[in-house]
Amino acid sequence: DAGGGFVGGALRGLHGKLGYLRRLGVTAIWISPVLKQVAFREPYHGYGIQDFLGVDPQFLRPVSGNGRDFGIPESVGGRLRSIVPWSRIFDDREVLLAINTDPREARTAWVTVDDAGHRAGDRLRCLYSTDAAQLGKDVAVEPRNGKAVRLEVEPGGFVAYGR
User: Fold this and answer.
1) I need a surface site. Which of 45, 56, 147, 163 has the fewest CB within 10 A?
2) Is residue 151 a contact partner of residue 111, using CB atoms and an 8 Å limit?
3) With the C-alpha atoms ordered 6, 10, 13, 17, is the resulting torsion angle positive or negative?
4) DSSP three-state, residue 44
5) What distance in Å separates the CA atoms of residue 126 and residue 146, rounded to the nearest whole number?
6) What does the alpha-carbon distance between residue 79 and residue 104 come to, in Å, rounded to a whole number?
7) Helix, strand or coil for residue 11?
8) Residue 6: which pLDDT band, with cuts at 50, 70 and 90?
9) Is the dihedral of CA 130, 133, 137, 140 positive or negative?
10) Is the pLDDT of residue 41 over 70?
11) In terms of DSSP H, where are the helices of 61-156?
12) How far apart are CA 74 and CA 102, in angstroms?
């Protein structure tokens, strides 16, 4: 029993166990439910699903290679080789997370952020990255598809941005 408190871990802890999970044969990790949640109470582990057909707007952010044509990442030839972004909003502050599903090439994409939570010209800072050179670097919020930022993620890498 969690006693109504947080039960779980942190992304840094998960990252530290990726080698172990890989050796076990794990090929995918379900970090959190991506369906729209009830708004009137705190659901246990996020399983208070309000709409089984509606993706929570904090998840699966649309992406674009050119900054004009946005959509959800899609597989090509049975393989997903893209930046796959999602976000969480805590006390009106968005944390944007993204992985690069391509293990061989760095990927760059425009990623939609919460339109109501950002103004054009705002900056998001890299809070965590598998590429230490990105830590502390900023990306600018631009008026694309509402609001968007341009992210670059190393091959097979992961990043987290926030204010």
Assistant:
1) 45
2) yes
3) positive
4) helix
5) 21
6) 13
7) helix
8) very low
9) negative
10) no
11) none
12) 13
Q: Starting at the earlier edge strand, list the strands of the sheet with 63-64.
A: 63-64, 107-113, 147-153
DSSP state of 38: P
Neighbouring-strand partners of residue 89: 94
Alpha-carbon torsion, ordered 93, 87, 118, 163, to 10 deg: 50
- 88-143 pLDDT, tens digit per residue, is 877 778 899 999 989 999 999 999 998 888 999 999 999 999 999 999 999 999 99
**Token pair in block for residue 85:** 């972004």
Q: Average pLDDT, stretch 1-8?
A: 49
Q: Is 26 left (phi over 0), alpha (psi -120 to 50) or beta?
A: beta
- pTM of the complete model: 0.69
Residue among 81, 107, 110, 82 nearest 96 (CA)? 110
Taking all residues of the chain, what is their mean pLDDT, rounded to a whole number? Answer: 82
What span, in angstroms and rounded, lies between the C-alpha atoms of 92 and 40?
Answer: 16
Reading the block at residue 90, the tokens are 């805590």
Average pLDDT (79-84) is 82
> In the prediction, which pLDDT does 145 show?
94
Name the pLDDT band for 1 (thresholds 50, 70, 90). Answer: very low
